[in-house]
């Protein structure tokens, strides 16, 4: 398990209006950091943080999600 220097840990929140790109940005950050191997797509219903069937059907985020990455 990786040990992290607490002074170098950053917690961020992605907050914005509906359809502003929060889920797409999350996918891009996770992909670019190597945490996931493919970019999820909202239209295809395969994003990392939208996993509830209602979210997939409506193509919106309903529940808050947590994700982590090493940058």
From TrEMBL:
Which InterPro entries does the record cross-reference, listed alphabetically? P-loop_NTPase, T_Tr_GTP-bd_dom
Q: Which residues form the Tr-type G domain?
A: 7-71
Q: Which GO terms describe its biological process?
A: ribosome disassembly
Which SUPFAM superfamilies does this one have? P-loop containing nucleoside triphosphate hydrolases (SSF52540)
Record keyword Magnesium present: no
Sorted UniProt keywords: GTP-binding, Nucleotide-binding
- State one molecular function term (GO): GTP binding
Membrane-traversing stretches: none
Which Gene3D superfamilies does this entry report, sorted A to Z?
A: P-loop containing nucleotide triphosphate hydrolases
Q: Is Nucleotide-binding one of the keywords UniProt gives this record? A: yes
Q: Name one Pfam family in it.
A: GTP_EFTU
Matching entries from PANTHER family are given as: ELONGATION FACTOR G-LIKE PROTEIN, TRANSLATION ELONGATION FACTOR G-RELATED
Please state what the protein is called: Tr-type G domain-containing protein
Query: From which source organism is this entry?
Result: marine sediment metagenome
Q: What is the lineage of its organism?
A: unclassified sequences, metagenomes, ecological metagenomes
